[in-house]
Amino acid sequence: MSHANEQAVAVRGLKRAYGQRTVINSLDLTIQRGEFVALLGESGCGKTTLLRALAGLDAVDAGHIDGPARPAVVFQEHRLLPWDPLWRNVALGISGSDVRARAEAALAEVGLADRADDWPRNLSGGQAQRVALARALVQEPRLLLLDEPFAALDALTRIRMQGLVKQLVAHHRPGVLLVTHDVDEAITLADRALVMRNGAIAAQYSVSAAARQHRSHPDAIALRDTLLAELGVANEALAA
Ligand SMILES: Nc1ncnc2c1ncn2[C@@H]1O[C@H](COP(=O)(O)OP(=O)(O)OP(=O)(O)O)[C@@H](O)[C@H]1O
Ligand SMILES: [Mg+2]
């Protein structure tokens, strides 16, 4: 891969507080280009705050972020502009003479080639998220930030979306930071799974290729148990 060993982003000593409450504290994180990183952590632990800081959407109180000025971001809700047709939504953030063609190519990549002139209101939730993905990838980002992009989708659509993201990321090779609450999603997609706690990355685990490919592989089963324990979910609670 031509982008291997290039950094997508490097974060050092990041701190972010809301009033008296420190949400991110001395956080360090490096993601390489082409690397897929999943970020897990209890609700309210600061995952979205971290993503917004990396996206340049929020100020930080201390620390340093060495990364692209405008990384691509996909949120849980699609955030498409209702008054623009799909191709224009995808074309947001790119410029040049061939904008429409590039937007159409990106829509084709997410299986919506024939919907370029359609409107956001006519899309299903999964289709709208696919447009949001096309809008993110048309920029050929060095860093792709995904904040629970499949959380609002039904189980089957979610599995299809995971497959699509895997394929698109393999093709475009950005560094990816995916926030998810779903341990299995993290294992299926990521090279590395991080656990955020007390404002920092408290633990990280590499995901073996075997674990990624087979849910029932011993590596996958062991990692699932480890991550659930890290998240404070005991096996007994799941079995009950
Ligand atoms: N704009 C804000 N003003 C004040 N506090 C905030 C603000 N945004 C987030 N917080 C607080 O910061 C903490 C972290 O919030 P954040 O949204 O980053 O959590 P999260 O890990 O993404 O949670 P979830 O998994 O539920 O999405 C929470 O305690 C939240 O209340
Ligand atoms: Mg969040």
**Shape summary:** globular
| Domain count | 2
Calculate the mean pLDDT score and round it: 93
Strand order of the largest sheet: 5-6-7-3-8-9
What is the β-strand count? 9
The CATH class of the largest domain is Alpha Beta
CATH superfamily of the largest domain: P-loop containing nucleotide triphosphate hydrolases
How many helices?
Answer: 9
Helix content: 25-40%
Named CATH architecture of the largest domain? 3-Layer(aba) Sandwich
Integer-rounded radius of gyration: 18 Å
Alpha-carbon distance between the termini? 46 Å
The fold-level CATH name of the largest domain is: Rossmann fold
Main sheet specs: 6 strands, mixed
Series of secondary-structure elements, N-terminal to C-terminal: EEEHEEHHHEHEHEEHHH
Q: Which ligands occur here?
A: adenosine-5'-triphosphate, magnesium ion
Low-confidence stretches: none
Helix/strand-derived class?
A: alpha/beta
Beta-strand content: 25-35%
